[in-house]
Amino acid sequence: MGFDEVTPSSPAVQVTVKDDCKSLILSNEQLTTLMKDLDKSIRDGLNKETNASSTVKCYVTYVQDLPNGTERGKFLALDLGGTNFRILLIELGDENYFHMDFETFKVPSQIQTGKGTELFDHIAKCLAEFVNKYNLDNKKALPLGFTFSFPLRQVGLTKGFLNSWTKGFNCSGVVGKDVVKLLTNAIKKRKDVKIDVCGILNDTTGTLMSCAWNTPNTKIGLIVGTGCNACYVEKVENVELFDGDKIKPHVIVNTEWGAFGDDGKLDAIRTKYDQEIDEDSLNPRKQRFEKMISGMYMGEIVRLAIVDLANQNKLFEGRLSEQMKTKGAFVTSFVSNIESDTVDYKNTQKILSEMGINDSSMVDCANIRYICECVSSRSAHLVSAGLAVIMNKMNEKSITIGVDGSVYRFHPYFQKLILEKTRQLTRADIKFDLVLSDDGSGRGAALVAAVTVRDELPLVKNEEIAK
C-alpha cells in the first residue's frame, strides 16, 4: 500500500465507493501534523505545570527495573482489562526455567456496570478459587502483580487511582479511588486467602516487561486490542511528576495516548463515522484517538460506512438488513476475516449472510473489502505515527517494541502496515523491530512482582520450584 493511499485489492471497487472512503485515508501531511501535536501532548504530560491541561497524561508507573534473569520463585498475576480476566501462576527458576498455569474468568455484564465493591468481591472470590485449585501454600502471603488496563494515576508501585473507566466498564464508586486498596480490602474480607499485591500496572507495561524477559532491548510496550495504548522507558529527569527513586535513571511511563485529541486536535481527520461512534459511546468526547484505532470500534466504523453507502444506493442496490442496521452487530473479527479472503470472496459472502444480506454481488464484496482496508490501514497508520513520535523522542539507536492485542495478533496485515509506516515516519538512524508478546499483560504482571521481590528471595533450584 502506498504512503498516501489504500490500494484496493480488486479492480472491481467502484469509483464512487473510493471517493466516499477518501476521508478514511490519511496523507503524509496529515500524519506529520498529528505527530507534532502528539509530541507536544506527551511533553506536556511529562511536565508538572502542563500535565493537568494535557490530554496525554503520561502516568508514572513507578516500575524502574526490568527483568534481569535472576528472578526465582512462584508468583501470581491478575490481569483485568475487559469482559474476561485471567489469574496466572508463574514459576521462574534456573536456566530460564519458566512455567505458567492460568484460568480465565468472566466479568458478568451486570457487574461491569454495577457497584465497584461487587467487581472486586467477584475478583477476590475467583482468586480464592484459583489458589485452592492449585494447592498453593498460603501460610505466607503470595506475591501478586496486578494488571489493571484502565487509565490509572499512580503515586507508587502499589497505589493507583482510577482516572476513568473505558472499554464498556462503568462500575460506580471506583473512579478517583485506589484500586489496589479496593482489591486488598475485598481479599481481606474473605479471610480465606493471603495475597500481597506487589505492584499495579497496565497491560502495556505488562507487555513491555514480558518481552524484556526474553529481549532485554525492549523499551516500548504497545497494545492494539479492545483498546489501544503505549508505554515506554523514559529518563527520570524528563518525568517531572516522578517522586520515586531518582538514583535509578529510568522509569516506565504509561502514556494513555488513547485520550489524545479529546481537546479537538484530531477534529481535522475525524470522519462523520468517528463522530457518531463517539457521541453514541459510554464515554462521549473521551478516548477519541483510541476510538479511531482499537478493536472495540473498528467493526462499528466499517458498519457505519456500509450503512451510509447502502443508503446512497452504492451497496446492495440500497437494500439493508435489520442486522446491518444494528449497532455493534458487525464485529471487528469480521474485518480481519474479510481482508483474509481470497478472490472468490467466500468469507465475505458468509459474513454478509450472517448479517442478513444474502444476495451480495462480487462488486459488493470488493467494495466491502475496500472499506475494511481503509479502516484497518488508518488504524495501523495512527499507531505508526504514535510509535514514531515516541521513538524520535527517545532517540535511541536500537529499540524493540513489545506488542500485544487481538487486532495486532489476528489482523492479516496489521503488523506489515505498522512496520512500513513507522519506518517511513521514524528518523532514519533509529533501528527498531516489533516482537509479539507471549501472554504479555499477565506474564508481565507476575514479572513485576518477581522483580520487586527478587532481592529478598534466596536462589531456588528448579527441583524445589516443581514441588
UniProtKB/TrEMBL annotation:
Keywords: ATP-binding, Glycolysis, Kinase, Nucleotide-binding, Transferase. It catalyses: D-fructose + ATP = D-fructose 6-phosphate + ADP + H(+); a D-hexose + ATP = a D-hexose 6-phosphate + ADP + H(+); D-glucose + ATP = D-glucose 6-phosphate + ADP + H(+). GO terms for cellular component: cytosol; mitochondrion. Residues 18-213 form the Hexokinase N-terminal domain. Its EC number is 2.7.1.-. The keyword Thylakoid does not apply. SUPFAM superfamilies: Actin-like ATPase domain. This is Phosphotransferase.
